[in-house]
Amino acid sequence: MKPAARFSVVVVLFLESFPIMCRFGKKSGETYARAQVPAHSLRAGVQFPVGRVHRLLRKGSYAERVGASASVYLAAVLEYLTGEILQLAGNAAREDRKTRIVPHHLQLAIRNSEELNKLLGRVTIAQGGVLPNIQAVLLPKKTESHHKVQSKCSPVLLLTARPPRPTEGTAVTLTCETWLPPQQADVQLQFCFFRDDRALEPGWSRSPELQVSAVWSEDSVSYRCEAQAAGSTVGRSKPIQVQVQRVSVYNVSLETRPPGGHVVEGQKLVLVCLAAGGTGDVTFVWYKGALGLTLETKTQRSLTAEFELPAVKESDAEQYYCAADNGRGPCLSGLVSVTVAVPVSRPVLTVGTPGAHTVPGDVLQLRCEAPRGSPPILYRFYRGDVALGSSPAPSGGGASLNLSVTEEHSGNYSCEADNGLGAQRSEAVTLSVTVPAGDRKRLTLVIVEGLLSTLGLSTAALLFCCWLKRKVVSVVGGDEVYSLVYHLQQARPSAAGVSVYNVSLETRPPGGHVVEGQKLVLVCLAAGGTGDVTFVWYKGALGLTLETKTQRSLTAEFELPAVKESDAEQYYCAADNGRGPCLSGLVSVTVAGVPPKAFLLLKPPWTTAFENEKVTIVCNSPLPPVPGDVTWYDDESFLRKGSKEIQVKKSGSYRCRTSGSSLSDPVHVEFSSGELILRAPHPIFEGDNVTLKCQERSKKVTEKKVFYKDGQKLRREEVSASDSDAITLQSVSSDNGLYHCATPFRWWHALGLPESTSNRLRIQVQELFPLPVLTASPAQPVEGGPVTLTCETQLSPQRPDVRLRFRFFREKQPLGSGWSWSPELRILTVWREDSSYWCQAAIPVSRPVLTVGTPGARAVPGDVLQLHCEVPRGSPPILYRFYRGDVALGSSPAPSGGGASLNLSVTEEHSGNYSCEADNGLGAQRSEAVTLSVTVPVSRPVLTLAAPGTRAVVGDVVELHCEAQRGSPPILYRFYHEDIALGSSVALSGGGASFNLSLTKEYSGNYSCEAENGPGAQHSEAVTFNFTGGLVVSGL
């Protein structure tokens, strides 16, 4: 038996040995090799177990030896052949308008396929029937033409996608590449593209390309294309899978409108959450307070979202932050503080006196206080409309004014409160000054002694209480007494339920110290409360919700079965029984073996570069170096292992991990193909001076660069501009935003072309250190025992030269010696009432730098001189003082940090040494002295001539003397005969200068001189010098 016939018999025997289920497939006439559809046999319900195939091969004795891989290979071939035959047989059944495959359909499928017929041509199919045979001349012409095209034009189709792994939001081009035989090059094909089994718009067309304008993650499916000629499909490509890449959201920031977060009560506040990059639908969440009260959630296909507070209240003065998430993990913004300025309410004036009556000689205290209003508040006191004085209240509250009473002080008194948002005047209070008559005091003492001896102490006390009651009722009106009683009643707990109070969080194991992989239990306890209590556990100071439980109990537990490195955080919980939540304090959990994060530095320190440039990234550890390789990551993908430095040439978010540190935060490096880029350094911390550099790929003749922040042009007088290509943001704090620069070419504008624009660069200012957390050791001290308070915070390891100072408070009272370099304070004895402690951490100011700016190279009287003082580093607010020598000139505050300036109108006396001093309460620092010389312009000089005698003859020497009465030395004098310069002389110490001239006949004429010391030259009047008769000189 021939090999082909033998293989056909094997195939038929195997097909008879397995149950086969049918399905409809491709049209008859398609070739075996070009009709591959993956997993057809699986969809048809056909299975070819390799073990059973192996047993049948050995049982059939088809060869002396059956290898282990033979059964695998034969099972795969049989599965593929079965799927193809069933698909063609299904097409034959469809054309026969049948829903079930019979042996005749198998006969038609095999005989009408050139390759299957060659393989199984000698196999007899039982009940296969006969093949239809129609002479070609009997077929209609249309059918003949159709079969001609179908038989001769069998194109090979290949679908490609560019790019093969697109990013969300970008375009993708699908190309259906076709190979036709040379003799069929004139056949006109139409193409259609399919997404899964759905045709894409515009359906059938002559173009072999289709551009999808934007793809998203849900478009990660299979695509295929088909071709048809004369209305009949002649080819189909294999399906391809397009994987759409999603980019994580990064560099999220929160901005406010109005900028700076300063808003007046009742005004509208808009919180704008921005992400520098990311794809897909982004969910934005706004939070209030460091504990993370959720305000609003929005999901949209945008990198910017807004949340509006239409009318802010005083309680909205808080810290806010936002989060953005596109399904690849949330990215948080920094905390932004919002201050709500409250206008003062109507103040209340109280007049206090030492006794029941005011008499001359008493000290009268006027106290004015506004119930509401943002500090600082300035109080002014009036008698009638005459101002008595004023007193500030920097921290709010009230203010007082003391007067020594005389007979003239009777009258109406009032006060006024003003915090810059509108002044309010109190109601008038009438004061009567009583002049004493005789021994009124002695008479009063006699009457009191008589009452005590006659009525007894108890009766006198009863009378005093009656008098006191009358006094109270006379001072406080009935409405006020009723209101006081009402509020006291409201303050009593209702019988319906008791609010949850004194909530605390404890850990098991105690102290929050746990080993990685160990179980951690967070126990939330309430000291009291009634009803069903809802417990919520939070992670981190920003308040990531972990778990919520509701139960009728004052204790609830949340369990972390196996802690990880990322669980080393601060935790707290909240309990609420419907009468308002009560929060626990923060509890720190430390995971043993978790090292601090590594950090990245760039060389050069720019996050933006041109294509084909290289950027070196250095991985540093905050701890001493440990031997071992550094692991590098690009986004979340492993990059390589090796040294602590790598060079990169493609855009990405890079991270690293060393042997002695955990995974660093990502740093995004962008390589631009544009002609203009904006560079910014990395990293940027609060208080840094940040230089933004606008750089061109190829230098052109340009005007000064123009810089923008959030689409708004930055004026150069608002920033420090070192040259035309760079600006410096001084002492950054709230400078987060999207920056770019542009190069306006003059000849571009002449042609009406737009300016050249750089990349958009997100500036994110990092906190130098987080908010401090106060901890106590022991956590629950014994009354009368000692306790150690620790103010915990962490400076960035990228600023090792910065030191912090600490201060501790009980209520509002500072403890210890004030500011200290130590973060700990030991209290020897604590009592039950000593429960409210807090701490501050701040950066002392560094040595300030004084700059003196003048309109020109020198200062002259009348110029406006600006003294600018600024510290490179220091926590705000900072107070700057300016000095000439040791004489104070004035002061200027910088509430948000940065520098401050003082303007002086220059006079002759302003020459000297200038310096400035910076103070933020942690110690003042003095700048180096800067010397200023004020140049007094010269006055108009006077020229005098001096000869040896009354007559001057040829050969005599004449002295020309020029002198200006005013002017700062040195002064340069020039001498002229007519308009010809004769010579010059310098007066180094002021005064005049002389020039000697030997006379000749040619020296008759007008003489003058000129004086100059810098600001401008002054010319004298002309003096005439004539020879008479050749010998006599006039004008001497």
UniProtKB/TrEMBL annotation:
Annotated transmembrane regions: none
GO molecular function: DNA binding; protein heterodimerization activity; structural constituent of chromatin; transmembrane signaling receptor activity
Function: Core component of nucleosome. Nucleosomes wrap and compact DNA into chromatin, limiting DNA accessibility to the cellular machineries which require DNA as a template. Histones thereby play a central role in transcription regulation, DNA repair, DNA replication and chromosomal stability. DNA accessibility is regulated via a complex set of post-translational modifications of histones, also called histone code, and nucleosome remodeling.
GO cellular component, as recorded: external side of plasma membrane; nucleosome; nucleus
Keywords: Acetylation, Cell membrane, Chromosome, Disulfide bond, DNA-binding, Glycoprotein, Immunoglobulin domain, Isopeptide bond, Membrane, Methylation, Nucleosome core, Nucleus, Phosphoprotein, Receptor, Signal, Ubl conjugation
Protein source organism: Pteropus alecto
Any one GO BP annotation for this protein: cell surface receptor signaling pathway
Name of the protein: Fc receptor-like protein 3
Membership in a protein family: Belongs to the histone H2A family.
Subcellular location per the Swiss-Prot or TrEMBL entry: Cell membrane; Chromosome; Nucleus
